[in-house]
Design goal:
single chain, 366 residues, alpha+beta, two-stranded parallel sheet, 13 helices, 15 strands, 36% helix
């Protein structure tokens, strides 16, 4: 926003004339669906507003100090609403040809939390995609992380108090499997990695840290780069495939341990969603590494589902969150192998491998 205001003459002129609007994609969608230039509603919700770096987590309103720092005028920003209320009606002359309530807005990972029915403090979900995104519901408490995590709004339903979350992001998880496929070409399709990794009983001492563009939570080291360590003459592509799956699990443990340290909450189980959850070996390894149950729901596209739940609550399709909880159904549960070497010896070596990634890219001043 600051860049546009500073560098684009048309934006400066539009702000001066009072015709400029700025916001996240949800605000753009609602504005267009509700009529656009013919009376569209300019609104966002607390979860998306929290990602602009302009909202105060305590007041749930645009923060005057931050607006001043980034020189963004309040007048161009959308109204901040809850995640579940009727914001507007679709334009009857628009794409749907009818007046339909627009009633649910949530950011990506927060929507997945709602889709996983993680409404209570201490409940957590991890979404496995190109990267990994783990959130822990901290209830009405704003927990300021001391262990490299982000503090964010989890959701706010109507007039209820906002619920907050801790979030940890892992840059490379599913994309590590894509790298095995596209760059190393040891598999021809992503699902093949499971059978290849299962063809060996363990990783053969190989550890793969896919820090291709640095390490995200909880390390936040942009000087790190990817390493494969522990290889011997006996190492095969199967060991590398297994090490890639284990890397997904170890990185997830790094984040969830930081969450436990920040919140004081020990996870009873971990709900998972996203594409990689179809990889049964990876989910078993995740359970072994964490030593807790890993649970996959029947519907793994939980982001769209969560937005639908929020809208359903707003229009009365569901009376309360207890009804929504009943919609959640377990599809598969993985229980940890208590004799697995992964949570102790394996994790110790993973940490050793992490050390090998650091300080690879030298700063300009060094």
């Amino acid at each position: 926003m600051n860049w546009f205001i500073t560098n684009v003459l048309a934006v400066k002129e539009a702000i001066a004339s009072g015709s400029a609007l700025m916001g996240t994609v949800d605000a753009w969608l609602v504005w267009n669906l509700s009529g656009g230039v013919k009376g569209g509603v300019h609104v966002t919700d607390v979860t998306n507003a929290s990602r602009t770096l302009l909202m105060n987590l305590e007041t749930l309103d645009w923060d005057e100090e931050l607006l001043s720092i980034f020189k963004v005028p309040r007048a161009v920003l959308p109204t901040i609403a809850s995640s579940s209320e009727v914001y507007a009606q679709t334009d009857p002359n628009g794409v749907f040809g009818a007046s339909i309530p627009i009633a649910g807005i949530l950011g990506d990972q927060q929507a997945a939390m709602v889709g996983q029915a993680c409404f209570n403090r201490g409940e957590s979900k991890t979404t496995y995609g190109t990267g990994n995104f783990a959130l822990l519901n901290t209830g009405e408490e704003i927990v300021r992380s001391k262990n490299g995590l982000l503090t964010t709004v989890c959701f706010k339903f109507g007039r209820e108090k906002a619920r907050y979350a801790l979030e940890g992001s892992v840059a490379v998880t599913g994309s590590a499997i894509q790298w095995l496929r596209d760059q190393l070409q040891i598999i021809s399709s992503a699902p093949e990695v499971e059978a290849l990794a299962a063809s060996v009983p363990d990783n053969g001492g190989v550890y793969f840290v896919p820090a291709f563009s640095g390490l995200f939570a909880p390390y936040w080291r942009n000087d790190a780069r990817g390493v494969i360590v522990g290889m011997t003459r006996a190492t095969t592509k199967a060991h590398l495939a297994r090490a890639a799956l284990e890397a997904i699990c170890y990185q997830t443990r790094d984040v969830l341990e930081a969450m436990a340290a920040d919140s004081g909450v020990s996870l009873p189980e971990m709900r998972v969603d996203g594409g990689i959850t179809a990889n049964e070996l990876c989910m078993q390894l995740q359970s072994d590494v964490m030593q807790i149950d890993v649970v996959r729901p029947r519907i793994i596209e939980t982001t769209a589902l969560g937005a639908a739940y929020a809208a359903g609550l707003a229009v009365g399709f569901y009376d309360n969150v207890e009804e929504v909880k009943k919609q959640w159904q377990e599809a598969r549960r993985w229980k940890p192998d208590r004799n697995s070497p992964l949570p102790a010896d394996g994790y110790k070596r993973w940490k050793k491998a992490i050390d090998r990634t650091l300080n690879w890219v030298e700063s300009e001043n060094s």
